[in-house]
Design goal:
Helix content is about 45%, strand content about 15%. By secondary structure, the protein is an alpha+beta fold. The strands form four sheets. The protein has an eight-stranded antiparallel beta sheet with strand order 12-11-10-6-5-17-18-19, with helices on one face. Helix 14 links the parallel strand 1 and strand 2. About 45% of the residues are buried.
Amino acid sequence: MQELIYDLLKNRISDLKDELKGDDAWSCYFTEVTAFITDVIEVYESVKTGLYDKLPAAEKKAFIDRLYRNIVPAGYDKSFLNPDVATAHFGTDIGRVLSAIYAELVSMISYAYESDIYSLVIRLGLFLELYGAYEAEKLDGNEIAAEEILAIYKDYAFDHSKDMTDHSAESLYCKDNGVAGRIIENADLTDTSYLYDYGEYISDNEIKTAEYLASLPTEDIESMASVYVEGYIKGFEVTGKDVSIKNLTEVRYCLGFERVVKKAAELFKNHGLDVSLRRSEPSFVAGRKLVKVGYFSTIANKQFEADHENDRVLFFDKKMLEHRLTCFKNSLEERKIQTSGFGGPAVIEVFGEKPTELAVKQSVIKPDDEMNKLFAEYTVRSVDILNEYVKGEERSFTIIAFPTPAIGKDFEAIFKETVRLNTLDYTLYRDIQQTITDSLDKADYVMIKGRNGNETDLKINLWKLKDPAKETIFENCVADVNIPVGEVFTSPVLEGSEGLLHVKNVYLNEMPFKDLRLRFKDGKVTDYSCENYPDKKDNEEYIKKYLLFSHKTLPIGEFAIGTNTTAYMMMKRYNLESVMPILIAEKTGPHFALGDTCYSHEEDMVTYNPDGKAIVARENSISAQRNDKPTEAYFGCHTDITIEYDELDRLYGVSASGEEINIIRDGRFVLKGTEELNKELDNE
């Protein structure tokens, strides 16, 4: 049936090429989109028939280049994909919706390479419904109204919500890995042409990454994969969770790392775990974001991604919220056997790409406060639903990071340094960090003060121990879920935590922040600013979107002290401050997380440090509402912000009697038993 519908829609697209004439805005829009869809159809049929597999790499690359020609910056500046262009031709109301519909059609690239005929059919239907409505009004001598176009888009989003949530659940919880699985299992990973089989944008970054990994000896690949997999297994062990009841983990990675992924899949299998390989969401209606979750490649154009992140404003309302949540719950319920076996993600992060300055556009759709409340409610309630089927007390995760060639001429040296970083002696750090946790268990609160232009002056209130012989405030974090080793962390007491957090330059959630200032009262953000743009309002909107995630405020969900001075010196040696991933950067000084605590949805599960003491600081006054007011207990985000050692004047605890417990002074560890950490710093 789908093949028949597809053929009818394909033939109608073919007819459009002959019908569309003229140089008015509507003709130009439909001509551009029709040309794109024609290219998608050609790729789909080439993949479906097996002809694509036989093409030389140059021809596969030509296909990719054609499909992304209006997405890459040079093409985007002139394309109706760009809201600036669309609104200039059609006005704000019509232009925004037409640009959003076109952006949704971009997802067809992924579905063509996956031979997913159903996902192609519903999007072909969306486009042809739009064209049919336009033609009907034109025949009557009218212009199509913005309301009619918007209704088409909204109906599409509503009617296919179940299909989209089913597609997402199927790709994650059911082991059918599509294109990625076939590549990992069957491709010659020494021939980088396999990268063009994904249907993702392929840059020199992916090609050079694959070439470099292909050049490494097998034992190096095995070592990298082993650290990654063992970190995942340790994550279960140290939290007292039973990995034997799980049979599936999701592997997230950047294209080019297939040799590591293939070996990791073999090692996971040894632990009774299959892997799922999920493409990062290609559909804006389904939830495509600038920050990718799944497997992904270098983003072809971050401006395109950012311009359309909020397209859902066009169709999202209370009715859609309830409908989406119902669809999500039903999708998980239908797969509850599979979800019960899901152990959580194992993530390979990458770093090296230089920060991108995004333009502030008036043409872009922006949520108002009411819409932001709906988004926040959806996030919290969807996480609650997820936890019914993938229980927090049973799952774990791990994250490891590697550089890519985008980092520059020192790529190979930095890669080797990072591998060394990921395999540091965790017992050394465990023992040093135990000294820190023992000392801070005596503190009532902690003070953090900046230097060298850093204006931080912040008080963090700590949990009060009832039985110090058996309880502890800070978790002693070794190399398991967060690789590399090197931090102690806690959930602060919000009440009494206050002051200014300032970082001069930081890269958070894929975005750069200059002179970021956050003021806190009772542990919550009360004021914020940065210097990314000349206009104060633009900076506030930037922070609200990429750091507060549209919430009016967020609490300090975590306070930690990073101890990995080796990572810090690597960052300084190669000037990596602007590209270092938070996974490593958080280990290079004290850091503060905005949002949920590290124990989100697991507050009632007791965990222990290596010394056997129970970690009691697992909640705050917000997450404590989880039973009575679950929608107000969580925010669905957690962003770490680090102050580097060279910007740190003092970090010290203060006991109830007023005694100061010095941990760091003038950027050096001064607590007795932590001197080993200064050896790397003293080689500066």
